[in-house]
Design brief:
By secondary structure, the chain is α+β, with helices and mostly antiparallel strands. The chain has 12 helices and 13 strands.
Length: 322
């Protein structure tokens, strides 16, 4: 079954299953780094908004032999799990007094998102090839995170400016998604612990990990959700405080849009070698839509300033996946 036929089949099957009380719409949506995803919006009669469920991965499952029946079941599970909160009403989505407490920011690559940025308000850091974009945090629980990207037309509806969004997001983002800085060793151990099928005690992990500290030491900066945590770089005072505690300048490696690695700077560190490592990991390990930058960043403790330490000419970008 070709891709377009698959999309129409999914829409028709879902419509049959849900009935006439639901309105379904297929749409292509621009995502991070030029990624175009095909999704289906499921809106029940009387509802003012509905989440979009992306179908590209489901097509890959279909190509791997998963039946349409099973895929429909999985899509319905995603829909039930990610429904908008019942308390959200149209007036809450149009009144700026309700909106302001929900505005947050995310960090993305600037040059890779030229087309997307033309349609959304943003704060540009051209010297870093990064920019902050804005979302509404619609739902934020331990097992469910739901956001909606803010577009230029929303500003007219709310009578807000980009600077208004930025001021609100500077308060809301750290409040809703507090920053977390932990050693890379600690993070790796936690990931390993979660991968075991049974509870593993701390002492048992010593069998799998050396107790020798990393050299140079590395730290992971992200947020409490572990999603879109690279934006924590722009939390007020976060880099300044960490540089003060470590009594050094900082090297920042853009691991992904979800986290960055921080290394206290010493003369023994080769910036160019780190840049090669970042580029290699971006190409081989990080999904294209999650890539943040191929640049290495440097934070000066004395100047309280973030700059590019090493520039890679290789662009961040994606092709449209099926």
């Amino acid at each position: 079954m070709v891709y377009d036929t698959f999309l129409e089949t999914i829409k028709h099957s879902l419509q049959e299953h849900l009935g006439s009380d639901y309105h379904l719409t297929l749409q292509s949506i621009s995502k991070n780094n030029g990624l175009i995803l095909d999704g289906i919006s499921i809106c029940k009669t009387g509802e003012n908004a509905a989440p979009t469920i992306y179908l590209n991965q489901f097509y890959k499952s279909f190509q791997d032999g998963i039946s349409i029946k099973e895929i429909i079941k999985d899509i319905l599970l995603v829909y039930q799990t990610n429904k908008l909160p019942d308390h959200i009403h149209l007036e809450e989505l149009t009144a700026k007094d309700h909106i302001k407490s929900k505005i947050i920011y995310r960090l993305i690559n600037q040059s890779a998102n030229h087309d997307l940025l033309s349609d959304i308000p943003h704060i540009s850091y051209q010297n870093l090839d990064l920019c902050l974009v804005f979302c509404l945090s619609m739902k934020n629980t331990e097992d469910n995170l739901l956001t909606a990207l803010i577009h230029n037309n929303h500003l007219k509806t709310w009578n807000l400016t980009t600077e208004d969004l930025h001021e609100a997001a500077k308060v809301n983002t750290p409040r809703l998604f507090p920053a977390s800085i932990r050693s890379l060793s600690e993070v790796i151990k936690e990931i390993a612990q979660k991968s075991f099928t049974h509870e593993v005690k701390e002492e048992e992990l010593f069998e799998f990990f050396d107790d020798i500290p990393l050299s140079p030491p590395m730290y992971v900066l992200t947020n409490s959700a572990g999603i879109q945590g690279a934006a924590c770089m722009f939390y007020e005072g976060i880099l300044k405080d960490f540089a003060f505690c470590s009594d050094s300048d900082l090297i920042i490696l853009p691991s992904s849009i979800h986290e960055v690695l921080i290394i206290p700077h010493t003369q023994n560190i080769s910036i160019s070698e780190l840049a090669e490592t970042v580029f290699s990991i971006n190409q081989e390990e990080v999904p294209e839509e999650d890539r943040l930058s191929n640049h290495i960043y440097f934070y000066s403790k004395a100047k309280d300033q973030l700059t590019v330490a090493f520039t890679s000419s290789a662009p961040i970008g994606t092709k449209n996946p099926l």
